[in-house]
UniProtKB/TrEMBL annotation:
Region Disordered, residue ranges: 303-324
Classification via SUPFAM superfamilies: LmbE-like (SSF102588)
NCBIfam families documented for this protein: mycothiol_MshB
A family per Pfam: PIG-L
Cofactor: Zn(2+)
Keyword entries, A-Z: Hydrolase, Metal-binding, Zinc
Organism in which the protein naturally occurs: Micromonospora polyrhachis
GO MF, one annotated term: zinc ion binding
Reactions that this protein is recorded to catalyse: 1D-myo-inositol 2-acetamido-2-deoxy-alpha-D-glucopyranoside + H2O = 1D-myo-inositol 2-amino-2-deoxy-alpha-D-glucopyranoside + acetate
Name this polypeptide is given: 1D-myo-inositol 2-acetamido-2-deoxy-alpha-D-glucopyranoside deacetylase
Functional summary from the UniProt entry: Catalyzes the deacetylation of 1D-myo-inositol 2-acetamido-2-deoxy-alpha-D-glucopyranoside (GlcNAc-Ins) in the mycothiol biosynthesis pathway.
Binding residues annotated for Zn(2+), in chain numbering: 15, 18, 150
Cofactor note: Binds 1 zinc ion per subunit.
EC numbers, comma separated: 3.5.1.103
């Protein structure tokens, strides 16, 4: 039995580097504040591009060793963010990067896109039993921008939360990563005359495959004091994010705010106190009654469903209960 931190955050991402780009400041912010931060990555990112010419032989179409290399990149990124608890869903290599939507790689026997939903969710439930997160972060139903692995990560995370809730160990709040349209519009205005405009050819924020109306945003996490940690984590993913990436260009123009402020919609749970015209939360744990000296079950333990306010007993191991 292990005593857990009072605040426990679980993030489910599709590939190495997704965690740093989308939620790096949030993760570093909560680690620095003493929260338990657990990252689950669903694939090794085997189908990614390579922006380091000397490593081109690692490509999926060549030696097919990129996934193994990206394990080390992810470890370095987590170290930069201070995240000590990182897992691969079902173990490293259990699920393979599916590639972009519609490619033959979607049909690979291990492609995450084709994974059995309940089996994959079962792997995540095992982690939830152990760490008992109050807050879960993942993508929206479109995977933020439509990548099949992001969509599947959403499905797996939401199904796992449903299964865990039936056992009394599900998260109280579930957030989806988001980008306010006002932020996108500000970026488009700033870069309109730039030679390295990442929005070239886009006239309106509505033309992008992502972007959320400001009134639908639930939380804005200010991790500007962690912007250097986020940038270091992104630079750890050197095969995926080149030194001249537009991400760093935006960072140079917007500074700490771009690197340090991240946004979310609330999919499950009650919204806590917030600020500003739309009442954006400043804390993902806002409104939650936090545990005092909570105790985790041993790894593999299954918990019986309980009523709110009652202690959560451990009733046996997964092998004894016949549960994955």
């Amino acid at each position: 039995m292990t005593t857990l931190a009072a605040r426990r955050l679980l993030l489910v991402h599709a590939h190495p580097d997704d965690e740093s780009i989308g939620t790096g400041a949030t993760m570093a912010h909560y680690v620095a504040a003493g929260a338990q931060v657990t990252l689950v990555t669903c694939t090794l990112g085997e189908e990614g591009e390579i922006h380091v010419p000397a490593l081109a032989g690692l490509l999926a179409t060549e030696a097919d060793q990129l996934g193994g290399y990206r394990i080390a990149e992810l470890a370095a990124a987590c170290a930069a963010l201070g995240v000590a608890d990182h897992r691969f869903l079902g173990g490293a290599g259990r699920y393979r990067d599916s590639g972009m939507m519609g490619l033959p790689t979607n049909d690979h026997p291990r492609a995450f896109w084709g994974a059995d939903l309940d089996t994959a969710a079962g792997h995540l439930v095992e982690i939830m039993r152990e760490v008992r997160p109050q807050v879960l972060v993942t993508y929206d139903p479109n995977g933020f921008y439509g990548h099949p692995d992001h969509i599947q990560a959403h499905r797996v995370a939401m199904r796992a939360a449903e299964l865990a809730a039936a056992e009394g160990v599900g998260p109280a709040k579930i957030y989806w990563t988001a980008m306010p349209k006002s932020v996108l519009e500000a970026g488009m205005t700033t870069f309109a005359e730039s030679a390295d405009n990442p929005f070239a050819g886009i006239e309106h924020a509505d033309d992008l495959p992502f972007g959320t109306p400001d009134e639908q945003i639930a939380a804005q996490i200010d991790g500007t004091d962690q912007h250097t940690a986020k940038e270091a984590a992104m630079r750890a993913h050197a095969t995926q994010i080149p030194d001249n990436s537009w991400l760093y260009s935006i960072a140079g123009n917007f500074g700490n705010e771009f690197m340090g402020v991240e946004y979310y919609t609330l999919a499950v749970g009650e919204k806590g106190p917030g600020v500003g015209p739309y009442g954006w939360e400043e804390d993902l744990f806002a409104g939650l009654a936090l545990d005092v000296d909570p105790v985790a079950a041993p790894a593999g333990a299954v918990r019986a469903p309980v009523q709110p306010g009652e202690p959560t007993p451990v009733v046996g191991t997964s092998a004894e209960a016949g549960v994955r």
